[in-house]
Specification:
This protein is mostly beta strands and about 90 residues long. The chain is built from one helix and five strands; from the N terminus they run αβββββ. It has one domain. Helices cover about 5% and strands about 30% of the residues. The strands form two sheets. The chain has a three-stranded antiparallel beta sheet, with no helix packed on it.
């Protein structure tokens, strides 16, 4: 989703001065992710779990990366990702 990622990112905190506009007030911070006892890519990426499953073993997640203005999607089996609660109206 081109440009949508930039509108979700905070206006500060992203690597290499590639901050967002926080147009929607979502304030996505580049928290990185954890796998095992290690934390990776703080300042560069944020990954959010989705409530939707790709299959029985993998869940979808959305992520924003510091050097791109898009919102991406993937699927994975494990890892510690950010969680964002969104209310359905």
């Amino acid at each position: 989703m081109a440009i949508s990622g930039k509108k979700l990112k905070t206006t500060t905190g992203w690597y290499e001065y590639d901050d967002g506009t926080d147009y929607y007030g979502f304030a996505a911070l580049p928290a990185g992710f954890a796998y095992g006892s290690n934390v990776y890519n703080v300042g560069e990426i944020v990954q959010f779990w989705s409530s939707n499953a790709d299959n029985d073993d993998y869940l979808y997640y959305a992520y924003l990366y510091y050097n791109d203005d898009e919102l991406f999607r993937g699927s994975r089996q494990d890892g510690a990702l950010s969680v964002r609660c969104i209310r359905n109206n």
